[in-house]
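Q: Can I see a sequence and its folded structure?
A: Here is a first one.
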Amino acid sequence: MKRLLGYIVVGFLGLYLATLFVPGVEVQGTFEEGIKTLFFAGLSLGIVNFFIKPIIDLVTFPLRLLTFGLFSLVVNMGMVWIVDILFARLIIPGLAGLFWTGLIVWLLNFFIPKRKPKIKEE
């Protein structure tokens, strides 16, 4: 449950940062509608990353091995593209916007831990 919540937070934060820093990435509508769209898009991205991405990672393991893990960025771009298709108000124009948004989400997934580290007691 904590991992799913972590993926949802990373999804929301990644999409929010993309709207701030990636040119062309925007959420249409009023401020309240934009926040709702970002929340539900982040929720959807978290669910997609939690349930679908492990299966895609397993299938693409040889490619990730050959590219030293950089193919994971392509997988993340695909997950962001799925969410972009689902939400009409979320605008991610072209491959460059998708690349930078996927990179932001990929870096956040890399640096933000999804589970609490276990502490050894002696």
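Q: Show me another, different protein.
A: A second, unrelated one:
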Amino acid sequence: MENFDISVQRFDEFAAEYAERFMNIELYADSIDAFCNLIKNDRPKILELGCGPGNVTSLLKNRFPEAYITAIDLAPKMIEIAQKVMPEVDFRVMDVRDISSIPEKFDAVMCSFCLPFLSKADSVKLIADCAEKLNSGGVLYISAMEGDETKAGFETTSFSGNSEIYFNYHSRHDLENVFAESGFEICHLKLQDYPEPDGRITTDMIFIGVKTYKI
């Protein structure tokens, strides 16, 4: 079983624990607000990747009550939790690496917790796929954990007990280049410390870009 598949299995197994631990995402509220402020449509079509139990989805729906939101996650139990809270949202069990198969175009793509579980190659492809899914002037939110990719490995979490999840780390410079190559102008970049359960401090990188030209 691949590292990615193991992580998905863990998220499905501990979906309820994750929902309880992370339903409050106040730490990221200002960045999500910055993302929303760049969306110029009051009734936007939004694609959310790795939506989990719908914590970010709820903020988006509150900000844009008339938005059409498609939210995907590969863990069925995460989708089940989210659907109970927001039955009006189009939740789907789907791999974020397959979004090129979605026929619609969107005004915004929210990808708040995917890159820590994607390899460098998959992350490059995902950002390019997001560019293809966005209308001109569309907005992309991406977050990742800063660090050398050689740091990747299995780690314990605050919600999965002794069951470890595989985490990937990404270079700020590499992601800046991928954004530019995919046709995005970075409008917001925030580096934010995050305290891990074992006492370590990791750094979250939050990128918000606007699609400036058709690739």
